[in-house]
Design a protein that fits this description.
The structure holds two protein chains of two kinds. Chain A is of the alpha/beta class. Chain A folds into three domains: 217 residues, Pyruvate-ferredoxin oxidoreductase, PFOR, domain III (Pyruvate-ferredoxin Oxidoreductase, domain 3, 3-Layer(aba) Sandwich); 187 residues, 3-Layer(aba) Sandwich (Rossmann fold); 108 residues, Rossmann fold (3-Layer(aba) Sandwich). In chain A, 37% of the residues lie in helices and 21% in strands. A seven-stranded mixed sheet of chain A has the order 11-10-12-13-15-14-21, sandwiched between helices. A six-stranded mixed sheet of chain A has the order 3-4-2-5-6-7, sandwiched between helices. In chain A, helix 20 links the parallel strand 22 and strand 23. In chain B, helix 4 crosses helix 5. Classes of the chains: A alpha/beta, B alpha/beta. The interface between A and B is large, with 70 and 59 residues.
């Protein structure tokens, strides 16, 4: 047995776990991330998996990956390139070889590098040679056979045995990075409470991997990544979907209204509905409706009846909801619509990320139909923007769309847990019983929000609906001038939200040559690019948008201060087009990408450098 | 009953009339239905503010504007789904869903079957005029085969839905049928529908004087109606006819209903089927809703009325139960639950 050398200290590390979609790579990555987080590292994760539950085994299309970036410094993205790749088969190597840092460590399960699998993955003979990885730190571990051996006396069926081989890989990684096994063992104990033999099998394999790593020559060096210097407080790991669900519940508690969510499952938004369905303990009502239209219309009904109502979906579902969203606009009811974007059009790339629903969200309805739009920019801040969407909806009596995407939905990061007392109050515009001369469309003069009279309240009986309504009485009106007036009011009401949202802030350079502009989930990558450029002496500013409609009040002032504006987004230029429409006096350069993947920091830096030179 | 009732509230139908001018065509069956609903509501002992009337789009769906209750005029086809949201949000409300044959059986067919399956406690009044009234006369999913309309100038080539068959097939627990002009029967049925806990679907055979006039003339004309309608009442034999000499028996050999004449072939009143709307087995109810003149009289009255747990109550009961046993009582508890760590 080799003696453990003194570990080498690293600032940050990116590990990518990859294998067949049945190999349990998502769990492996999650367990590693949880351990890293509990040890105080800052982390960012990026699960990347195929749309099929069990895609054809051994093919590149069936590869499921989980990337985790953990560090001693602040970690803002899951990382462009990996320091360590775990490849459970040749296809996993094929899919990921181009995402490796030069000289990276590659742990492969040699047992799976059979001629048949090699061919299936599209290699001829020797994948390592063909990928030109000979100089890399390739560790050929017989993971499958050693897993079998570790469990041979347990009498388990072969399926259960093979299912635990991911823990062998995890054990190896734990050794390399000097991580304790405890948190993962605790997980087995609570997860498989009723199956002691599964607990034992997983523990044995995890340890077998750990000790195997300790023994082999190739792995005589280990590494430590010290805890990050992050703000004091209590932390937890959270993904965007859970954070979104929790933000809605927090808003319902603050507003003193029960939360109602009518929804229909769709990737990558389903996690929100699943989390909310668990939260009956906090009084959350979830209705899994018969389709997306029923999802939003049950929610509109609940909003009419006086609850905080939300509906959650992705692009195709939002398309189905568009007519009903118009109904919420004209009836001026509070409603939160969450759009977790994915690659489109149509079914598109269900499990991949994209920001291509912006125009649909802003304009995808019949008629002049303005809605407020906010976008979250990190997994954890989905909590705050979900909360904010609900606050704006309730206080301004309007539907609000919260935009997130697959990258935020599934990605995780440590989150400093807020106390409810830190969050702002929410004051719904409920019309009190006994109000004299109530009229459905009487408005608050400042915000133009109408009063919300809740069915069941004596004396406030009224009718609303999708037909145009008379300005104050709310009676059906076909009067031409009234329609103009109401159209103006609906637009103005959304515009005035600008007085209730923060100004756009610029990171880095406050004026100068280049301003990076982004919105939503690209924040981490843009911020990293801005900081790295800064270190390289290339000063740029970064203006990142969370408020999309209305835009913050100072946008023009910000844009005016830079010679060049580079709008970066994961679509073909929708936000750039939106800015062009609102501020046509400026020139906009674009960086666009639709590959179902986030930007890499390098891509953004290249674009800036090209711009500076050009 | 979940709805708050009180002996003290005394209403007249007028209390339920809004100040809006009723805009249906003169002679439209909808006027009579409005009348019946206002009567039923005034008699139910439910406070006015507890009523919510929700509709889709169509002539029929203008209904909420004419009521002095809470009302919501929705979008085409979605009345049942909006109503589900209202009822689940506040089970204290008495929710009435107003919909047309196009609204509930074409564009909104999905919501109709699912609301019935879930058994949400709403009263859904389906105004069946076998035509699209509001859009001026196109055929609907209940238009009879061959019906000539603006979009079927040579007659439709598709068979219609029978709403009752669909509702019972979707596990519906309450189905009744009435005719617009029979205000007494309609009022009675609407009242029972409101008392039934669960989805109560009432098909109202409604005449559209403009685009499908006389759609039900063969069963409603004074001369023949007693021979062509049968009004089913619980515990009473299924007897009909001007002379009250006809009845229904079950032809066991062919497993179907048969019209017989009392006094002929040794048939006595005792042989006639006795109506039981509370029978859970849908077999006979299905046969009754499917009766069509001229082979059978058309069944009116409450055909099916079976007690079953409602969706809205089940949702709230489950929430109550989970709340009781969970250590997480408020958001702060959730935020700090599970795997957390301290950074010092
Ligand atoms: C999404 C949508 N599609 C189509 C229409 C047009 N439309 C309005 S009412 C209606 C049919 C109404 O028929 P029915 O439900 O039978 O009601 P009736 O007017 O006969 O009472 C149609 C097709 C619409 N308003 N919305
Ligand atoms: S068109 Fe027909 S259904 Fe519509 S109001 Fe006139 S008569 Fe009634
Ligand atoms: Mg109709």
């Amino acid at each position: 047995m080799t003696k453990k050398n003194k570990p080498i200290e690293l600032e940050d590390v990116v590990i990518r776990f990859s294998g067949d979609s049945g190999d349990g790579m998502q769990l492996t990555g999650t367990l590693f991330s949880n351990t890293a987080a509990l040890l105080g590292n800052d982390i960012a994760t990026f699960p990347d998996y195929p749309a099929e539950i069990r895609a054809p085994q051994g093919t590149v299309g069936g590869v499921s990956g989980f990337q985790v970036h953990f560090g001693h410094a602040r970690v803002k993205t899951p990382g462009d390139l990996a320091d360590v790749l775990v490849a459970m088969n040749p296809a996993a190597l094929k899919a990921n070889a181009r995402w490796l840092k030069p000289g990276a460590m590659i742990i492969i399960d040699v047992d799976n590098f059979t001629p048949k699998n090699i061919e299936k993955a599209g290699y001829n003979e020797d994948p390592i040679k063909e990928e030109k990885l000979e100089d890399y730190n390739v560790i050929q571990a017989p993971i499958t056979s050693l897993t079998k051996r570790a469990l041979e006396d347990m009498g388990l069926d072969m399926k259960s045995v093979l299912r635990s081989k991911n823990m062998f890989a995890l054990g190896m990684i734990y050794w390399v990075f000097n991580r304790p096994l405890k948190f993962t063992e605790d997980f087995f104990k609570s997860k498989f409470k009723k199956k002691p033999e599964i607990i034992e099998a997983n523990e044995r394999v995890l340890k077998a991997g750990y000790y195997y790593a300790e023994t082999i020559e190739a792995l005589h060096v280990t590494y430590v990544v010290k805890p990050a210097e992050i703000e004091k407080g209590t932390y937890r790991n959270i993904n965007g979907n859970t954070a979104t669900a929790w933000g809605l519940i927090a808003a319902s508690e603050k507003a003193g209204l029960q939360l109602f969510v009518g929804s229909y499952p769709i990737t990558p938004a389903t996690g929100i509905l699943e989390e909310l369905a668990l939260r009956k303990n906090l009084g959350v009502i979830t209705v899994q409706a018969e389709d997306e239209i029923a999802g939003i219309t049950t929610s509109i009904g609940a909003s009419f009846a006086g609850l905080l109502a939300a509906t959650t979906t992705s692009g195709p579902g939002l398309a189905l909801k568009s007519e009903a969203l118009g109904l919420a606009v004209i009836t001026e009811l509070p409603l939160v619509v969450v759009d977790v974007q994915r690659g489109g059009p149509s079914t598109g790339l269900p499990t991949k990320t994209e920001q291509s629903d912006l125009m649909q969200v802003l304009y995808g309805r019949n008629g002049e139909s303005p809605v407020a739009v906010v976008a979250a920019s990190t997994p954890a801040n989905c909590f705050y923007y979900a909360f904010e969407a609900a606050r704006l909806a309730l206080e301004h009596m309007t539907p609000v769309v919260l935009m997130t995407d697959g990258f935020l939905a599934n990605g995780t990061e440590p989150w400093k847990i807020p106390a409810m007392s830190d969050l702002p109050e929410i004051k719904p515009r409920i019309v009190p019983e006994g109000t004299e001369d109530y009229k459905p469309y009487k408005r608050d003069p400042e915000t133009l929000a109408r009063g919300w009279a809740i069915p069941g309240t004596p004396g406030l009986e009224h009718r609303i609906g999708g037909l145009e309504k008379d300005e104050i009485s709310g009676n059906v009106s076909y009067d031409p001038v009234n329609h103009q007036v109401m159209t103006n009011i609906r637009a103005e009401k959304v515009k005035r939200i600008v007085h209730d949202i923060p100004a756009l802030k610029v990171d880095g350079e406050q004026e100068g040559d280049v301003l990076l502009v982004g919105w939503g989930s690209t924040y981490g990558h843009l911020k990293s690019a801005q900081e790295e450029l800064d270190k390289e002496g290339k000063k740029v500013g970064l203006a990142h948008f969370n408020y999309i409609n209305p835009l913050p009040g100072n946008v023009e002032d910000v844009l005016r201060k830079f010679k060049k504006i580079l709008v970066c987004e994961l679509n073909m230029g929708q936000f750039a087009g939106y800015l062009r429409m609102n501020f046509p006096q400026f020139d906009y350069h674009q960086l666009n990408k639709v590959q179902g993947l986030p930007f890499t920091v390098a891509e953004i830096k290249d674009a800036v450098n090209n711009l500076k030179e050009g | 009953m979940s709805k708050e009732t009180s002996q003290e509230v005394v209403y007249t139908p007028k209390d339920f009339k809004s100040d809006q001018e009723v805009r249906w065509c003169p002679g439209c069956g909808d006027h009579a239905i409005l009348n019946s609903v206002q009567r039923a509501m005034s008699q139910l002992g439910i406070k006015k503010e507890k009523y919510a009337v929700i509709s889709g789009i169509g002539c029929s769906s203008r209904f909420p504007y004419y009521m002095a209750t809470y009302g919501f005029h929705g979008i085409h086809g979605r009345a049942a789904a909006i109503s589900t949201g209202v009822k689940v949000a506040n089970p204290e409300l008495s929710v009435w869903t107003i919909t047309g044959d196009g609204d509930s059986l074409a564009i909104g067919g999905n919501h109709l079957i699912h609301v019935a399956r879930r058994n949400v406690d709403i009263n859904l009044l389906l105004f069946n005029n076998r035509i699209y009234g509001l859009t001026k006369g196109q055929y609907s999913p209940t238009s009879v085969k061959g019906q000539i309309t603006k979009t079927s100038p040579y007659g439709t080539v598709e068979p219609p839905f029978n709403p009752g068959e669909l509702v019972i097939g979707a596990k519906g627990k309450f189905f009744a049928r009435t005719i617009d002009g029979n205000i007494k029967l309609s009022t009675e049925i609407f009242t029972e529908a409101a008392r039934h806990e669960g989805t109560s679907v009432v098909e109202v055979l409604q005449n559209c004087v403009i685009y499908n006039n006389g759609a039900y003339a063969d069963i409603t004309d004074r001369e023949h109606k007693e021979d062509r309608q049968i009004i089913l009442r619980d515990g009473e034999p299924m007897i009909f006819g001007k002379e009250r000499d006809k009845g229904l028996i079950l032809d066991r050999e062919h497993m179907k209903l048969k019209v017989v004449k009392i006094g002929e072939n040794g048939i006595t009143e005792k042989d006639i089927l006795v109506h039981n709307s509370t029978e859970n087995n849908p077999g006979l109810h299905m046969m009754l809703v499917n009766m069509r003149w001229p082979n059978y009289p058309v069944a009116l009255g409450i055909i099916r009325n079976v007690a079953a747990p409602t969706y809205d109550m089940a949702v709230h009961a489950q929430i109550g139960k989970v709340k009781e046993s969970s250590p997480i009582k408020k958001m702060d508890d959730l935020l700090t639950s599970g795997n957390t760590w301290e950074v010092k």
